[in-house]
Amino acid sequence: MVRVVILGQGFVASIFASGLEKVKAGKMEPYGVPMADELPIKIREVEIVGSYDVDASKVGKDLYDVVRRYDPEAPESLKGITVRKGIHLRSLRNLPIKATGLDDEMTLKEAVEHLIGEWKELKPDVFVNVCTTEAFHMFQSREELEKAIEEDDREKLTATQVYVYAAAKYAKEVGGAAFVNAIPTLIANSPVFVELAKESNLVVFGDDGATGATPLTADVLSHLAQRNRYVLDVAQFNIGGNNDFLALTDKERNKSKEFTKSSIVKDLLGYDAPHYIKPTGFLEPLSDKKFIAMHIEYVSFNGAHDELVITGRINDSPALAGLLVDLVRLGKMAVEKKEFGTVYDVNAFYMKNPGPNERPNIPRIIAHEKARMWAGLEPKWL
User: Fold this and answer.
1) Is residue 109 within a helix (H) or strand (E), and if so which, with residue range?
2) Is the pLDDT higher at 247 or at 173?
3) Would you give the DSSP letter of residue 287?
4) What is the band of 280 on the pLDDT scale with cuts at 50, 70, 90?
5) Quick check: bond before 274 cis, omega within 30?
6) Environment class of 155 (CB within 10 Å of its CB; exposed 0-12, middle 13-18, buried 19+)
7) So what's the pLDDT on residue 259?
8) Which fold would CATH assign to domain 213-315?
9) pLDDT of 6-52, one tens digit each?
10) What is 2-209+318-374's CATH number, 3.90.420.10, 1.20.1250.20, 3.40.50.720, 3.30.365.10?
11) Is 197:340 a contact under the CB 8 Å cutoff?
């Protein structure tokens, strides 16, 4: 059994919860789950045991009722789980949402202890972080991180960083846990948090789930690099209408997202071709179905100039939610293997900015094989 706690009960988390239960009930095929039926831990063994949010309209509500806001066909098996109060630390600023969090009632140190107490009752194996994209500070040492917690430094810390700190303390007490960081805040790419995870029996996957246009761009750039075509420039953008895109209208949040999306260019090509890769706007009528566009200009043999132009409409949240079904099972496997810290072979396929920070993006087909072999599966394409 894989016991899961969700951090941030928004669109992605709700589609994850709904789709997971439908697959378990045999009402839906697990399309969009890369290793759906292949892992030794089966999808039916995944159980959501807790959920946290800071939207005042969700906290205290039944998970089934919250999920129904995003999927009217939410399974009734989600009834009986209460959405608990989490930490916001300004994560909902500039959004039309009333925030309520533990940090409104107590210090961050007290909030950490409060969470650990609840988690000891819930007994999660894996935490899934799908909070709203944050603007974050990169900690340079463990001492700086612990001082920020101790001194209740709310300007320096984000909700994700506090959640990871609490998860590490919980993991150390119970003997092991995993934290899936599906947003751009650098955790698996932070030497401070990776060191903390190693010492605390915590596995960290991250950072920022690789969905939509970014893995497609990576595949195209790999294709061009393998054929020694010289890329002159890359333009890729997407526009969406969900709350994450609304949050990304904040310049500092967008900057953190742009970093994880842009890191692929130099890693895959070997040179930093001029590029513009980032979310560019919010258009409410698009809702969760984002518009993506990509333009790549490159030089081929005999100086020929070619161009690729790709457009698409992609349901944003299901693309990430399907990956989470794998990641929670892989997280449990990593804990059983005692591979504490971060696991590049998993991150390289599932994350836009795979940790640890000294490891590059690689072609997704190679990353897929590495992830499969790490999981003990036969290679598909080698």
Assistant:
1) helix 108-122
2) 173
3) T
4) confident
5) no
6) exposed
7) 54
8) Dihydrodipicolinate Reductase; domain 2 (3.30.360)
9) 999 999 999 999 999 999 999 999 999 999 999 999 999 999 999 99
10) 3.40.50.720
11) yes
Contact present, 156 and 87 (Cβ < 8 Å): no
**Reported pTM:** 0.92
Domain ranges of the chain: 2-209+318-374, 213-315
User: 243 with 55: CB under 8 angstroms?
Assistant: no
CA distance 278 to 207: 16
Question: Closest by alpha carbon to 124, among 47, 43, 58?
Answer: 47
In this structure, the dihedral spanned by the alpha carbons of residues 362, 294, 257 and 98, taken in order and rounded to 10 degrees, is -140
Q: Which of 120, 130, 129, 128 is closest to 171 using CA atoms?
A: 120
Q: Among all chains, which residue has been given the structure tokens 């991180």?
A: 145
Mean pLDDT of the chain: 94
Specify the 3-state DSSP secondary structure of 4. strand
Q: Which two tokens stand for residue 305?
A: 């100039």
Q: Check whether 317 has a pLDDT greater than 60.
A: yes
For the chain, what percentages of helix, strand and coil (3-state, to nearest 5) are there?
40, 20, 35
- How far apart (Å, rounded) are the C-alpha atoms in residues 315 and 292? 11
For residue 117, pLDDT over 60 is answered with: yes
Task: Give, to the nearest 10 degrees, the angle between helix 191-199 and helix 159-174.
Answer: 20
Q: What does the pLDDT read at residue 214? A: 83
CA angle 45, 182, 372 (to 5 degrees): 55
Identify the burial level of 90 via C-beta atoms within 10 angstroms of its C-beta, where 0-12 means exposed, 13-18 middle and 19 or more buried. Answer: middle
Cα separation, 30 vs 263, in Å, equals 30
